[in-house]
C-alpha cells in the first residue's frame, strides 16, 4: 500500500514543508506498518497550471505537469493532506491541485494535518465536505497546529503530545486504508 503525504502550500517561506517532513519522518519511523510506503507529494514541486480544462488529466495532449500529478496520485491508496488555512478556507493552489483530478481520488482514504491561526479548523472541515465528492473515507481525528503556540519564532516546536496525536491519526489511517483498499480492489475485480 502507498500513502501520499501531500504538502498543499506553495508560497515562499511556507511552514508546510517542515510540517510535511515531520509527518513523513514520524510515519516511517513510528507507525507500525511494514506494508505501507509513505511518499511525500509536494504540490509546489509539481508546478501545476490553473485548471482550465477538466479533461487535462485524461487527455493525451494534456499538460505533462498534470499527467505527472495524475500518475503520482493514482499510485496512492490513501493520503495525508498537510493543509494550511487561507482566508478561512482551503488554499487556492491546493484546491486547484485537487480539482485537476477526479477518479484518482475516488474511494481512497484521507487524514488531515491542518495548521493556522486557529489550528486550521476551517480548512480541515472544508476538506471533509470537499472530498465527499469522491467518496473518500476520512479519519475522524486530525492534527491541528496553532501558529502562535506551535511555531514560536516561526519554526515548528514539537512536543510528545504532537507526536502522539500524529501517530494516532496515522495509525487509524493505515487501518482504514487497508480495509478500503481491499474493498475497492474487490469491487473493481467484480465489475471487470
Ligand atoms: C493569504 C493568507 C490567508 C490566511 N488566512 C488565514 C485564515 O483565514 N485563518 C488562519 O487561521 N490563518 C490564516 N493565515 C495564516 C496561515 O494559516 C499561516 O500563515 C500558515 O503558516 C500558512 O501556511 P504556509 O506557511 O504553509 O503557507 C493566512 C495566511 C495567508 C498567507
From TrEMBL:
Ranges of residues in domain NADPH-dependent FMN reductase-like: 1-144
InterPro entries: Flavoprotein-like_sf, FMN_Rdtase-like_dom, NAD(P)H-dep_reductase
Protein name: FMN reductase
Organism, as annotated: Citricoccus zhacaiensis
Amino acid at each position: 500500500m502507498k500513502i501520499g503525504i501531500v504538502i498543499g502550500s506553495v508560497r515562499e517561506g511556507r511552514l508546510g514543508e517542515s510540517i510535511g517532513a515531520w509527518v513523513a519522518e514520524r510515519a516511517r519511523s513510528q507507525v507500525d506498518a511494514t506494508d505501507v510506503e509513505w511518499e511525500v507529494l509536494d504540490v509546489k514541486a509539481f508546478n501545476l497550471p490553473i485548471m482550465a480544462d477538466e479533461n487535462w488529466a485524461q487527455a493525451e495532449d494534456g499538460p505533462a505537469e498534470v499527467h505527472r500529478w495524475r500518475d503520482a496520485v493514482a499510485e496512492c491508496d490513501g493520503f495525508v493532506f498537510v493543509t494550511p488555512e487561507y482566508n478561512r478556507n482551503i488554499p487556492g493552489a491546493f484546491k486547484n491541485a485537487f480539482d485537476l483530478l477526479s477518479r484518482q481520488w475516488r474511494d481512497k482514504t484521507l487524514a488531515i494535518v491542518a495548521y493556522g491561526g486557529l489550528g486550521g479548523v476551517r480548512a480541515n472541515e472544508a476538506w471533509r465536505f470537499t472530498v465527499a465528492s469522491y467518496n473518500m473515507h476520512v479519519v475522524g481525528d486530525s492534527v491541528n497546529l496553532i501558529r502562535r503556540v506551535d511555531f514560536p519564532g516561526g519554526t515548528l516546536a514539537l512536543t510528545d503530545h504532537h507526536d502522539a496525536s500524529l501517530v494516532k491519526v496515522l495509525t487509524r489511517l493505515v487501518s482504514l486504508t487497508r480495509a478500503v483498499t481491499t474493498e475497492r480492489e474487490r469491487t473493481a475485480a467484480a465489475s471487470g
